[in-house]
Design brief:
Elements (H helix, E strand, L loop, with lengths): L4 H13 L12 E4 L9 E5 L8 E9 L2 E10 L7 E7 L9 E8 L2 E9 L9 E7 L4 E6 L4 E2 L13 E9 L3 E12 L1
Antiparallel strand pairs: 1-12, 2-5, 3-4, 4-12, 5-11, 6-9, 6-12, 7-8, 7-11, 8-10
């Protein structure tokens, strides 16, 4: 059976689609959560009240048609040295080979953060964070690990995928009404 030019071009396009601009294979997207199968068993909400703050927040798991999502909402207050509300999930296994976090979300036109914690962190206030802006329509954002900054000294400059132990979505750092919906979160 002769190999056609069309067949060879199709194979070349498929191979080319998995190569990055730097000539390295692109890692596949690694969806972690789509909020469709009992997410309440994996996600927890907590606020700055664990350290004396006065922020209030909650998570609800919603559905619009076929779309499932988590909604983090509440009032972030910087009073009493506080200033955050968060939903967090522990990771069963580190995302080997991942280069960053992928999130599909919408919100109230405010800035939010993804927080990552690693197995090498000893103190509860240590994390890596990257900012994203939640527009009113569903939007996909990819945050490379190089975009994450450590919460203080004594941490690596950027997180390593093999060390990750939890992922969180956080309203943080200023007084405001938080409302962010997360449809998917994972790694790429």
């Amino acid at each position: 059976m002769p190999v056609t030019l069309k067949f060879l071009l199709t194979i070349a396009m498929l191979v080319g689609a998995t190569i990055s601009a730097q000539g390295e294979p692109m890692p596949p997207e690694m969806p972690l959560e789509t909020f469709s199968n009992h997410p309440e068993t994996r996600w927890r909400v907590f606020t700055d009240t664990v350290m004396g703050g006065v922020s209030t927040g909650q998570v609800s798991f919603e559905r619009e048609g076929a779309t499932h999502f988590a909604r983090l909402s509440g009032k972030v207050s910087t009073k009493n040295r506080g200033g955050f509300i968060q939903i967090q999930m522990k990771l069963d296994a580190p995302p080997e080979g991942a280069r960053g976090v992928r999130i599909v979300m919408r919100g109230n036109d405010e800035d939010y953060f993804v927080h990552l914690r690693s197995r090498t962190m000893l103190l509860p206030w240590q994390y890596y964070q990257a900012r994203f802006h939640a527009t009113t329509g569903w939007t996909e954002v990819k945050l490379p690990f190089t975009a994450f900054t450590p919460s203080g000294g004594m941490l690596r400059a950027e997180p390593r995928a093999k060390d990750l132990k939890s992922i969180g979505v956080v309203a943080y750092g200023k007084d405001y009404e938080a409302s962010v919906d997360v449809k998917e979160i994972g790694f790429y």
